[in-house]
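Input/output pair, single chain:
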Amino acid sequence: PTETHPPSSEGALQRFERVGARLRIDVERITRRDFDRIPEFDALFIRTTTAIDHYTYQFARKAELEGLAVIDDTQSILRCANKVYLHELLQREGLPTPRTETLNRATFDETAARSVADKLGYPLVLKVPDGSFSRGAIKAGDLTQLQQGAATLMKRSRLILAQEYVYTEFDWRVGVLHGQALFVCQYMMSRNHWQIIRHDGDGRFTEGGFRTLALEAAPTAVIDTAVRAARLIGDGLYGVDLKVTAQGVVIIEINDNPNLDRGVEDQLAGDSVYEAILREFMTRIDAGSASIP
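Output:
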């Protein structure tokens, strides 16, 4: 309840409860203290930012072992929490991404830094594999910033990514549920900043605005690319971030725990967004019951 950047606002959680009641689904909020209660439920929907070394992964794993329908499932968490894996997966499948190099703490030195700069140019962006909400990313404009930024991030991770800097006024976010587009938004960059969320040293942050579009109003290439990417991860709920550049669409990342806030992602579709997710759970629960001898 006290998360700084929760995936869903209070208003969105209330909508899940209200729509659930209409569908005759008992939607109950639980916290990390309720781990032992997992067997009481038919399904688990995680609305806390996920990570592998985190209680959210433990909840998902426990729920899967107990036969619950789970979003985010452990496979999705594992795949989306590793940007190195995602980049290699997208490259292998021929999906467009910014030019990217993997840097290894064991072999990174000035020669390696100069080499990656020659390939990607300045500025470039450094990322930890498991960053989220614009955290764990540093923009480097010269060799010194590259070396210092890499040293900072390599304290957190043995492998980091160096990526060409691709600036756009907004990122596209396509929500995908079970291989079908659910919503599409434009997330604006924070004012005078290169990311959607600008984090200040004192713990404060500022966010850019947004624009929600009807699915049919978004470029076909954006929707199609996002759906193709999400299907590589699984059949859960994903948020695919993309940029449209002069060279075409590129995928920035795939999120296993996408934002769903009241008045943002649901601005046009309203309760149908929540109903689609809850009906997906109903389908999974029914399928699970049918498989029990």
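The chain has a mean pLDDT of 91. The longest strand covers residues 180-188.
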